[in-house]
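Handout, section B. The chain below has 146 residues.
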Amino acid sequence: MPFLINIEDVAHVIQLAVAPVFLLSGIGAMLSVMTVRLSRAIDRARYLEDNLEKLDQKMRHYAHIELKVLWRRARMIGAALTLCTISALLICSVIGILFVGGISDAQLGTAIALLFIAAMATLMLALLVFLVEIYIGIATLRVGPR
């Protein structure tokens, strides 16, 4: 007996999978924004480290403080990136299981729901961590001469 899949079933599963695919696009955009922020923090830290010897004692002290803040921000962005990536992987799992459930008789609704809830929880946590990083960046903002 050949393995046949009804085209209407596949079309229905594709319709169900569209929303998670759009969610993946949004997560991808967030990953891009976070990666840019991480790159800028790393670039600033490298600049400070490369120029520490050129600074006088007072400015070197401020540079060390800024490096500590940059390290904390980089760790937070890294955590947010990790959580967003986990969320994206969970969404991919949801899409895969939707297709498996759509072409088989397996009852996978509970698994899909739990994976989706986990994806949303990790995405929410990622956004909260990212928000804290933004607040740290704003709190340490310095404008003008010291």
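Note. The chain has one domain: 19-139. Compare this with the example in section A.
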